[in-house]
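Try this one yourself first.
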């Protein structure tokens, strides 16, 4: 009888716990919609009210997460006899609770308001090409996030603490190892590519392409990949992004009349994010089991669709007729090989991360990683960011920005106070290659299916092995479940060396 009473008490506590979890997660989802609106549709003058609205929701969520009653429930449930799924929910909420409960509510509110107010300042600074107008705002955000990290753990590296907001399970050591290995092995490959005499069709998409027609093409590719329009929408934003949940996962892109390929690939990239979000289990909405694993996994989904599908030759064999139908005057004589080569050009002078190729992209990440790490650690002054940024671009990429807009002001992340986010882009690219290799091994003739425009089996494989698990597993456990191996950069490096060795006729890499 005593054991039955204990079981009943645990069940009651877990029921109350889940109700609270669902409330705090719904508050977070509501804040996400307000954030989407601010970046996509809100009138310019709405910032003062919106910053207070988002700050209020952030405070409410923080109060629900860190209340005394939440502490009591977590303590009781940690020692209770729970199912594996219930234990996973408790693990995830406990991790976040322990971190956030150490941070004063007034600081949470101040960070939320400051980041909301920072976005229009960043936008104006970028438009005016003047970092000095954004510098005081950035300095304030850096100070606030240092304080945030110190509250969580004053004895640890503050950047490591912030990194764990985006990837809590692989660890900063893994991020540094991966970035170091990519730098060591990709720089020689990039150098070999630039010295190659191969004549790729890099001017395939040169010219002017109407942006309204490009939007139609973006909708075409979302249709082809299987985007669920009943649960999503396409809009434009200064910086493409995707947000939402399994019932409402929206994508944005941006259009440049001289860069149609950039908009197309950005759309495919954001589709990957939305596909993951829409693949989360609907019956678990409002709990960690219905929430995505952290940013490494999320980025792996966008990179898998963008690079392993969207930049592949089988994809262009299928989708090129749609592109030429939209732009017959510019692309009527384009071959599949032309489109494939153009989609995989390694740029010699690209300064913009979101427009970078697969190889140089990771040097963009290294620059940002090193700068934001030094900012948070206090090893770099905000006023010195433009010069250090430009020096690192020259050292790692052989190019130097002429303006702040094409240099240190190009990304939105620091205006959101998202310090620690950037490494997950490279970590996700590495994981994408490992996942795609496993999918290829289990899906019969995956290339043939992509060539035929049949993406159902790939969708199903990703849903079964990644999406449906939500945050049930830690990142490293999820990788083992999906691929049967530990997380490794081997597959990514093998993939790019083989692909670009063939494209650029590099004997040492073929």
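Now uncover the answer:
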């Amino acid at each position: 009888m005593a054991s039955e009473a204990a079981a009943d008490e645990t069940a009651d506590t877990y029921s109350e716990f889940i109700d609270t979890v669902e409330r705090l997660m719904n508050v977070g989802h509501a804040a996400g919609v307000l954030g989407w609106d601010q970046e996509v549709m809100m009138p310019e003058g709405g910032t003062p009210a919106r910053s207070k609205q988002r700050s209020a929701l952030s405070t409410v969520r923080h109060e629900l997460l860190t209340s005394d009653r939440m502490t009591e429930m977590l303590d009781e449930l940690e020692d209770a006899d729970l199912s594996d799924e219930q234990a996973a929910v408790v693990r995830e909420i406990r991790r976040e609770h322990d971190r956030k409960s150490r941070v004063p509510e007034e600081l949470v509110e101040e960070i939320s308001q400051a980041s909301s107010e920072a976005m229009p300042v960043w936008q104006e600074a970028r438009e005016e090409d003047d970092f000095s107008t954004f510098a005081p705002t950035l300095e304030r955000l850096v100070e606030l996030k240092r304080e945030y990290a110190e509250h969580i753990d004053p004895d640890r590296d503050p950047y490591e603490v912030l990194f764990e907001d985006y990837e809590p399970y692989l660890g900063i050591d893994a991020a540094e190892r991966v970035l170091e290995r990519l730098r060591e092995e990709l720089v020689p490959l990039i150098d070999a590519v630039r010295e190659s005499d191969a004549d790729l069709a890099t001017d395939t998409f040169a010219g002017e392409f109407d942006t309204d027609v490009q939007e139609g093409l973006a909708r075409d590719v979302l249709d082809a990949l299987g985007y669920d329009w009943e649960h999503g929408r396409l809009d434009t934003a200064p910086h493409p992004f995707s947000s939402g949940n399994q019932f409402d996962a929206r994508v944005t892109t941006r259009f440049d009349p001289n860069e149609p390929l950039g908009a197309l690939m950005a759309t495919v990239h954001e589709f990957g994010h939305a596909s993951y979000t829409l693949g989360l289990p609907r019956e678990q909405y409002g709990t960690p089991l219905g929430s995505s694993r952290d940013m490494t996994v999320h980025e792996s989904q966008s990179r898998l669709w963008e690079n392993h599908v969207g930049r592949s030759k089988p994809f262009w064999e299928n989708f090129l007729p749609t592109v030429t139908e939209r732009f017959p005057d510019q692309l009527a004589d384009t071959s599949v090989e032309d489109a494939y080569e153009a989609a995989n050009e390694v740029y010699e002078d690209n300064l913009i991360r979101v427009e970078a190729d697969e190889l140089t992209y990771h040097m963009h990440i290294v620059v940002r990683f090193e700068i934001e790490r030094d900012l948070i650690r206090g090893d770099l002054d905000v006023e010195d960011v433009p010069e250090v940024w430009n020096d690192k671009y020259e050292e790692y990429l052989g190019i130097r920005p002429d303006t702040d807009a094409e240099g240190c002001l190009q990304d939105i992340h620091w205006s959101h106070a998202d310090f620690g986010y950037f490494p997950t882009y490279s970590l996700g690219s590495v994981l994408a290659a490992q996942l795609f290799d496993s999918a290829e091994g289990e899906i019969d003739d995956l290339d043939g299916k992509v060539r035929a425009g049949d993406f159902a089996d790939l969708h199903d494989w990703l849903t079964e092995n990644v999406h449906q698990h939500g945050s049930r597993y830690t990142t490293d456990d999820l990788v083992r479940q999906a691929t049967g191996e530990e997380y490794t950069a081997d597959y990514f490096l093998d993939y790019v060396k083989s692909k670009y060795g063939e494209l650029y006729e590099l004997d040492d890499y073929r």
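Discussion: The chain has a mean pLDDT of 95. The first strand starts at residue 234 and ends at 236.
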